Amino acid sequence: MNELPRRAVTRTARLASLPLGFAGRTAVGLGKRVGGKSAEVVAAELQARTAEQLFKVLGELKGGAMKFGQAMSVMEAALPEEMAAPYRATLTKLQEAAPPLPAATVHAVLAEELGPRWRTAKFESFNDTPAAAASIGQVHKAVWRDGREVAVKIQYPGAGKALLSDLNQLARVARLAGGWIPGMDIKPITDELKSRMSEELDYNLEAASQRRFAKIFRDDERFAVPDVLVNSEHVIVSEWMDGIPLSTIVAKGTRAQRDAAAERYMEFLLVGPARAGLLHADPHPGNFRLLEDGRLGVIDYGAVNRLPQGLPPAMGSLAAAALCGDARALEAGLRSEGFIKPTMSLDAQALLDYLQPFIDPLLHEEFTFSREWLRNVAAHVNDVRRPEFLVGMKLNLPPSYLLIHRVWLGGIGVLCQLNGTIPARDIVIEHMPGLKLHTLPPPID
Fold it and tell me: What is the pLDDT of residues 396-409, one digit of tens each?
């Protein structure tokens, strides 16, 4: 594979191969059952092969297709266990690994971006085997000319066209989905998403964001951000960061590691906007490491939300209204921020009931984020038999909250994968803007 499959028709056909492949394997599975294999054995084989193809297709396409896979891997905690289990390991691989580009292609990019003598002029050594591969680039470990270990992030040739193709496909699907959700204004959301995701192709912009975070959190006791040494349009060289990836802690971390990682992770999502004026907007576990000294290491700044004034102050007021059970204030605040369109009518108490499960972590001194809890939340909001279901159908997502919503939705998924017990209430009250200004009810335990 010398470059990403770029033509829209090619990428669409590859994506279409997933359901078609599943149908073919189902037919084969039926044949095996007729031939005498048990239903359980056939089902296990079918799910394993489907998961393998999912990783192969999404991984090779990279771009927006792989980002979709990474988003699925973050939110698998919300799926029923019998559905999520066969895909969990495969999707988690997308958080830190994907089929790599050949060394010759990598060398060509580095020669174009850093000069023909890049290997001898810039590095003491360079490992041709990638340490990680993501949606639009892969990372190689190297030793810089001054002896420092560095991470060399290289953008895939053709990543721009691939990402644009996937975003256009997403926009077409979103336009169809808009008719199913009466309260949702789809076009501004897809426009904002396309704009933000397109920024990820600009490695100079990403390097600037990383440098700002590195400056703000230099010598911080809780968080660590690697410095950028050199950057160009398609290459970023930054300090190497060791540590235990959160994806590893998700798979086999100790209780202490889970609690420490979850607490630092949640705190960073709130502290980043307040101190740096930027929200790290790619929350999947491969971008975070638990360092030996207890700090949370944070990498990959391609997706950020520029919030020069920090998170919107209204978030604190909305959280306070929900915590205090003030349904009318909650409705008024959501209308003011654009979550409820002026023409949409709904019952304030039903709105509070709909949002209540999301507030539950803030009602306790400590809370354990778990897959079981998230599955219950998902069941609550998606239960068509409950009157609150219609409330969800009437809510809008303002474009200014798009990345905030994406980060917190993904962040909750990661917290539930970590299964950490943390003082979520204290963290939110301390760092969410304006929340400390309200008189809140005491925790219930």
Answer: 888 888 888 888 88
